[in-house]
Input
Amino acid sequence: MSKIKVADFYYGAVLSMLFSHGIKPALVENGADRQVYDITTNKSEFRLYVKYRANKTDTKKADYSSWVFTIKDDTAELQSYINNGYKLIIALVCSEENLGESQLAVLDTEQITEIINAGKTTINVTIKKGERAFRIPIDRNRMEGSKVKCNRFDELF
Output
């Protein structure tokens, strides 16, 4: 009997989105906590680094959602891709209990570099109900930092 890993559901969601945009990625590396793909489109070539969180972080406010992605063990790999000239994109699958409400936060090379240069070992993705952009705090202030449009996937692909 072939068992399906939980991670396959989250990575599969990203692959489904890519396929529906006519993109056929090439798997570069596979792991339990991330997958890496090389992608070529009419617009550009890039390396896609995918991570997921099966559960969001408990917050004190009901209208606020947050997911924390650990990158402590990934930082050297991410920096290596950037140093080797890859246009790097991170896709963070932000899961909800109702999977149909899950979202995808997509960070570009500039934002990844900012996070690495700040010495962060986690990426905290937050969104307030009704907003159309995620916030990626660089310091402790949740309202500051990078903003990532919720529909950025469609813009990039």
Observations:
- The first strand starts at residue 26 and ends at 30.
- The chain has a mean pLDDT of 87.
- Residues 53 and 94 are 6 Å apart (CA to CA).
